[in-house]
Every structure is written in structure tokens, then in C-alpha cells.
Amino acid sequence: MPNREFQGYVNVSQIMDQSMFTLRANLASTKIKAALKLAMSVALPKPGACATAGACTLAWMSPDELLIIAPSAEAQKLYSSLDTALSGLHVLLEDVSDARAKFILTGAHVREVLAKLAPMDTHPAQFPVGSFNRTRFAQVAGAVFMEKDDMISLICFRSVQDYVFALFSAAAAHGSEVFQ
Amino acid sequence: MLILNCPYCGRDKDETELAAGGEAHLTRFGPGSSDQDFEGYLFGRANPKGLHFERWRCAAGCGKWFHAARCTATLEVFGTYKAQTLEPPRVIKDAITAKRPGWSWRNFS
Ligand SMILES: [Zn+2]
């Protein structure tokens, strides 16, 4: 399926060439931290935040879960190096690329469009650039990365990708601005 | 709208992102226990108008179960705390005492 896009007062586009891994592990463990540092040369993100290593993103999902997002072209190599670095430790590393969908919102009013659909405070003081939050988009679970002041990435399950695309397209449509 | 702060991910979550888990601090009575204890464990629940201790899950969030001390009448939240405890931590008890001196709930006070 090609990338699809909606152009409104905020643009919504689906990103197809992304791979995602779920890592379940005790993130407080020094051995796990060291293994991740070795494989990705990046420190663990703090709760409610994400960390960037080159084109890859690590998101803090819960005290025992990380989401790793990488361009599909680099995914196989990254998976192997993670698998090697974590071998022998009590972890679960799973390729969930086919289970998830990723969207990007761009535009000056991305915070407003997100605020229409997720029960979270999108004010810059509460959700600064670099923040990550798991929440819901209307009726389905999802996650939000505040990438830049005018760019937000969204993750949801692939089974609800059409719903989420339609949802954000409607919220971003011209004429639906909250503040003129 | 009830808003609770999840002690695992640190986020303020509104009621629609949470799953209610009923009364907190239940003692499990399983095989070998008396019929009366087992029945109490399965069905006996406090239903106070006022201070209550409850379990909640950060469902559209980090997924963890946590505990909350709140008032069922005013919806005032005294605090939330992690579930790996057998009784409310001192800081929660103190927060309740500040607002409701002389409070008691089940075996706690
Ligand atoms: Zn949480």
C-alpha cells in the first residue's frame, strides 16, 4: 500500500516503511541498559519520553516495555544487533511491524488537532518536544510522539489504521479550526 | 471527570483512559479457606459514601494496575500509589488525615 495523505489545515500522512520492535524487559536493570547502549548507542528514554538514535526512536511504553521504531531498510540489522546484545538476559524482543501503523501530523496547529481526539494536555508546558504518551484516539488505543512543535507522530494498531486515518483527516479538515 | 495520576508512568489519566478494578487491599482466600472467608473474598465489598481505596488500571497508557485513595462522594483524590504494597503508604495516610482527621477504612486508620 502506498503512503496516503490528507491535506487540511494540518496534514495527515501514513508512513509505511517503518519497522517496530517491542522489547519487554526490566528497564531498571543495569544489564539491560548496558545491552541497549551497546546495540543502539543510546541511553534509555525516561518515563514519558522518547530517545533518538540516528533514524531510530526508542519510546518508553511502561516500566518494562520499550518500543523501538526504525526505518525498514535498517530493521533487520538492528534486530540482529539487539538480539545479540540481549542474549542470555530475561527479555522478550518481538518484531511487531505488521501489527502497527504510523501516521505523521504536520502543520502549525498539530497540538490542536491532537487535542480534539485524545484526552491529554497537549500544551507545550505539559507535553514539550521529545515527549511520548500512550493514550486513546477517540475509541482506540494509540501513542503520540511530540517530534517537533509542528510535527507529531502517531502509532496505532494496524487493524484500526483506516479508522485512525479517517479520524485525524476529519479533525484536520479545512473549516474545522478551533482558533481562527 | 475523575483524573488520576498513574504512579508508574507519571501521567494524569482521565477516567476514560482507566479501567476500574474495584476495592483495593483484598486478602485472597483460596483453596483450604473456610466457606465464609472465601465468600467474603469473592463478594464482600465495602461500598462507602466517602473515603475509599480502589484499584485502577492505566488501560490507555502504561497498562499497570495501581491504587487510589479518594472520596466517592466529592470525587476528591487523596493520592495514588503503586500496587506492590499491602497497605497504603504513610504519605497517603497523612494526606487523608490532613483532610479527614480520625478517618478509618476496614483495618486502616
Ligand atoms: Zn500509567
Architecture overview:
The complex is a heterodimer of chains A (180) and B (109). With 180 residues, chain A is α+β, with helices and mostly antiparallel strands. Chain A folds into two domains: 4-15 and 99-171, Gyrase A, domain 2, CATH 3.30.1360.120; 18-97, 2-Layer Sandwich (Alpha-Beta Plaits), CATH 3.30.70. Chain A is 24% helix and 37% strand. In chain A, the strands form two sheets. Chain A has a six-stranded antiparallel beta sheet, covered by helices on one side. In chain A, strands 4-5-6-3-7 form a five-stranded antiparallel beta sheet, with helices on one face. In chain A, a hairpin with a 2-residue loop joins strand 9 (132-137) and strand 10 (140-148). The longest helix of chain A is centred in the middle third of the chain and has 14 residues, at 72-85. In chain B, 17% of the residues lie in helices and 28% in strands. Chain B has a single domain (3-99), classed as Folate-binding superfamily (Folate-binding fold), CATH 3.30.2270.10. Chain B has helices at 35-43, 90-99; strands spanning 3-5, 12-14, 19-23, 51-57, 65-71, 77-82. In chain B, the strands form two sheets. In chain B, strands 3-4-5-6 form a four-stranded antiparallel beta sheet. Chain B is an alpha+beta fold. Chain B contains two helices and six strands, in the order E-E-E-H-E-E-E-H. In chain B, 23% of the residues are buried. The mean pLDDT of chain B is 96. The interface between A and B is medium-sized, with 15 and 13 residues. The complex binds zinc ion. Zinc ion binds at residues 6, 8-9, 11, 58, 61-62, 64 of chain B.
A few lines on this structure:
Helices cover 24% and strands 37% of the residues of chain A.
Radius of gyration of chain B: 14 Å
Identify the CATH class of the largest domain in chain A: Alpha Beta
Please state the structural category of chain B: alpha+beta
Instruction: Please describe the biggest sheet of chain B, giving its number of strands, its sense, and whether it closes into a barrel.
Output: 4 strands, antiparallel
Mean pLDDT of chain A: 94
Order of helices and strands of chain B: EEEHEEEH
**Total strand count of chain A, please?**
11
Bound small molecules, which ones?
A: zinc ion
Query: Mind telling me the CATH superfamily name of the largest domain in chain A?
Result: Probable tRNA modification gtpase trme, domain 1
Sheet with most strands of chain A:
6 strands, antiparallel
Cα distance spanning the termini of chain A: 35 Å
CATH arch. level architecture of chain B: 2-Layer Sandwich
CATH class of chain B: Alpha Beta
User: What fold name stands as the CATH topology of chain B?
Assistant: Folate-binding fold
How far apart the termini of chain B lie comes to 28 Å
Unreliable residue stretches of chain B: none
* Largest sheet strand order of chain A: 1-2-8-11-10-9
Mean pLDDT of chain B: 96
Element-by-element helix/strand order of chain A: EEEHEEEHEEHEEEH
Write down the overall geometry of chain A. globular
Query: Overall 3D geometry of chain B?
Result: globular
